[in-house]
Amino acid sequence: MADTMRQQARVPVPQQQRRAIDEGAPPLISYVLPVYNEVAGIKRFHEELTAATATRAEFDYEFVYVNDGSSDGSLGVLKDVAKNDPRVRVMDFARNFGHQIAITAGLDHASGDAVIVMDTDLQDPPRVSLDLIDAWLDGAEIVSARRRTRRDTPFKRATAHTYYRVLRRCAEVDIPVDTGDFRLLDRRAAEELRGFRERSRFIRGMVASMGFEQREVLFDRDERVAGETKYPMRKMLRLAADGVTSFSTVPLKLITRIGFITLVLAMLGIVYAVALRLFFPAITVSGWTMLMVAMLFLGGLQMLSLGVIGSYVGRIYHEVQQRPLYIVRNVISHDED
Ligand code: UDP
Ligand code: MG
User: Fold this and answer.
1) pLDDT tens per residue, range 218-251
2) Cβ atoms within 10 Å of 187's Cβ, excluding its own
């Protein structure tokens, strides 16, 4: 199933995103909306979202809510919303699979000419999604909403600020700072993103690694309207670790580097121990030299070997991620203009 999907995603669809626009039919904009225990705010969110999109009647809309195993009655509210609005679809997860997986499921089911991913706690303001659409109409294929300011706790602000910058330094792809998962993907980019099937998912990194014409729109991040964050420390740390380990082998390279340093220090230690034994035999405890030489040598060698093994583990890791080898935007042939 995943394989056929990957194959489909690989087939280049020339200029499909302009198809609807060219034919005069209204382009379809899909919203992917992950929901986890948002019972208090979800109705208001949908009202604000539909109010914002109503000001742009030139598009058709589709709202794909993903209920990520909520235990607080969010599903009931979503069913209600779906009953009153035929553009709404609700995917109901059998349990909580996490934010990144919820987004993935929504992306798999969104069929729009452009797909917008946003949080459902009104921290990503619906009106900003219209700015993303404008940038898309202007030719951008991926538009990320970047936080100019955010109204979270000082702790969250400080950790997020530092994390994004550390990640940027060690990651192999250029992951934009202060950008979450609030973004618009053109149909082609969304199709390609569906081809990334790795389990530990850091979607903003995958998007950054895809290429395409990427643009940023600045916005001020609001406070949560209701409830509290669904990213407790534990989940946040896991996401942070996923970000580093999916897009960088810096930790593995660190082992090799430490291995080299240990081996060099061990060699110096060995020279010192042997010199002491040769030139000052009177103060050298019997058996100490042999013990030191063996211990230092083995220690250094082990560290270095770990680094070597690590570099192979890194390769295996890259292989099992099974990311697309390349991404084709378009194939130009001679009978097209
Ligand atoms: N969310 C989800 N599954 C989870 C955690 C969060 O679908 O396991 C949703 C949540 O309902 C919200 C979005 O992901 O729409 C972002 O979560 P939250 O606002 O708690 O994160 P924060 O803004 O505090 O980083
Ligand atoms: Mg939030």
Assistant:
1) 999 888 888 888 888 888 899 988 988 888 888 8
2) 23
